[in-house]
């Protein structure tokens, strides 16, 4: 079984298969003008995430510029190396653990003071979901640690795709 999460401002994809940890895109081929990054799962900043595999990210040109129209906009794929079922609660826990870790380490590196206990996620299943393609709406409250540390809310559409051939 393969699973994937994707969103409007953020794409989170879980798909199952073992792949080499190279620094070139395997899944996120587009938008190819956006900056690309890849790292192993669990990420070093969020070791509470139990999944093993890798993540690919592409950052919009204004991702790190608070006044840009595409501030904090990026695409994010997590490929998991083993067969698991991803539930609504798993999506929520992944997002909370990911952003608590990311915000904590980045705030520390930038000498920002934030309260990671205020980082949370709300995940709702959309009615249009299908058996092998479940879609959620998610809101994640976090901090803009790439800019000034001010609160930020990510509005996301997240899909879990089984048997993905990503």
Compact summary:
The protein is an alpha+beta fold and 166 residues long.
Description of the structure:
The longest helix has 22 residues, at 88-109. The two termini are 12 Å apart. Mean pLDDT is 84; it is low at 1-21. A four-stranded mixed β-sheet has the order 1-4-3-2, with no helix packed on it. The protein has a three-stranded antiparallel β-sheet with strand order 5-6-7, covered by helices on one side. By secondary structure, the protein is α+β, with helices and mostly antiparallel strands. The chain has one helix and seven strands, in the order E-E-E-E-H-E-E-E.
Number of strand elements: 7
Mean pLDDT figure: 84
Main β-sheet description:
4 strands, mixed
Total domain units: 1
Blueprint of the fold:
Layout: E1 14-16, E2 35-41, E3 53-59, E4 74-80, H1 88-109, E5 120-125, E6 133-143, E7 151-161
Parallel strand pairs: 1-4
Antiparallel strand pairs: 2-3, 3-4, 5-6, 6-7
Keywords:
single chain; 166 residues; alpha+beta; 4-stranded mixed beta sheet; 3-stranded antiparallel beta sheet; 1 helix; 13% helix; globular; disordered N terminus
């Amino acid at each position: 079984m393969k699973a994937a999460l994707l969103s409007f401002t953020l794409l989170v994809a879980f798909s199952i298969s073992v792949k080499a940890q190279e620094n070139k895109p395997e899944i996120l081929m587009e938008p190819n003008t956006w900056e690309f990054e890849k790292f192993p799962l669990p990420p070093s900043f969020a070791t509470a995430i139990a999944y093993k595999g890798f993540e690919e990210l592409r950052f919009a040109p204004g991702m790190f510029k608070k006044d840009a129209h595409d501030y904090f906009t990026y695409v994010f794929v997590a490929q998991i190396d083993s067969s698991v079922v991803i539930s609504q609660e798993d999506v929520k826990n992944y997002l909370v653990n990911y952003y608590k870790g990311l915000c904590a380490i980045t705030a520390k590196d930038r000498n920002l003071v934030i309260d990671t206990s205020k980082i949370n996620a709300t995940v709702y299943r959309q009615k249009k979901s299908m058996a092998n393609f479940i879609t959620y709406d998610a809101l994640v409250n976090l901090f803009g640690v790439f800019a000034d540390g001010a609160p930020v809310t990510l509005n996301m559409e997240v899909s879990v795709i089984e048997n993905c051939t990503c």
